[in-house]
Amino acid sequence: MDTSIVVTREGSIATVMLNRPDKLNALTKPMWRALGEAIDALSADDSLRCVIVRGAGEKAFSPGNDIAEFATERANKAQAIEYGHVMHATARALAGCRHPLVAQIHGICVGGGLEIAALCDLRICGTSSRFGAPIKNLGLVMAYPEMLPLVRLVGTDVAVEILLEGRIFDALEAKEKRLVTRVVPDDQVAAEALATAQRIADGSPLVARWHKKFARRLAESRPITADEYDECFDCFDTEDFRIGYAAFLAKKKPVFLGR
Question: With bands split at pLDDT 50, 70 and 90, how would you rate the model's confidence at 240?
């Protein structure tokens, strides 16, 4: 059984782990495929409220694709296109996941690892984490589907800076570049990621999904349609809304049902 991607669950929070610690969680083609399949399955699960994405151990989130695989899986353009189809399908799964995604980043987060983190909604790292995309040193290009999340996060100028220089930089610079949401001491990364996921899970899952959907839609240049505007008020017909405002008036913590 392939254990390179491990999914665990605690209540309404799932954790997806890149599980190749002996290689610092370097990504292979089967891992990319399994990651996409795992995210698609979790996205379809209405009982979930948040997903944490992390690498095994505390040395690395992921350094990107396993270079040893290039000779057999990406040795020419035809192979690279097929490999790209797998990667980009997984990128679409991450981008389209209905549940909030929290990247729990320990250590190295480079190349393909950075691309995965950039597709998460929140990114929490430790002070010793390192970031970058030095693919210029391999003579490789970051394709449009891989570059898009990075450009959305940091803007065109900073994305080009990261790719042209190929520097590995620290967590503080990553925070300044808006690559990460929060930087905490290394020994608090797991606890902060879980606490963040729990805060998300405590809210209405319907609202979380709507907020993700609306934020993605606002990133597009098309005007908001009348039907899309109308959807902003669907929440008022939900049971979660009635639970929420009743709990507020009663000064109690709401227990949302997701309906």
Answer: very high
Structural domain containing residue 213 = 204-249
Report the SS3 class of residue 53: strand
Give 221's pLDDT tier (boundaries 50, 70, 90).
confident
3-state secondary structure of 36: helix
Tell me the residue type at 194.
L
The Cα 196–Cα 198 span in angstroms is 5
Alpha carbon distance 196, 192 (integer Å):
6
Q: Which residues contact 1 (CB under 8 A, 6 or more apart)?
A: none
Band (16; pLDDT cuts 50, 70, 90): very high
Element (H, E) at 6: strand 5-10
DSSP type of residue 222? S
Domains: count for the chain: 2
The whole-angstrom separation of Cα 182 and Cα 38 is 26
pLDDT score of 1? 65
- The answer to whether the CB of 83 falls within 8 A of the CB of 140 is no
User: Residue 113: which of 44, 20, 194 has the closest Cα?
Assistant: 20
Mean pLDDT, residues 237-246 taken together: 93
Q: Are residues 65 and 159 in the same domain?
A: yes
As a whole number of Å, the CA-based R_g of the chain is: 19
Q: Are the CB atoms for 188 and 128 separated by under 8 Å?
A: no
Helix 239-249 and helix 205-218, axial crossing angle in degrees, nearest 10: 110
pTM: 0.94
Q: Provide the strand spans (E) within 99-167.
A: 101-105, 108-110, 122-126, 130-132
The reply to whether 117 falls in a domain is yes
Helix (H, G, I), strand (E, B) or coil at 91: helix
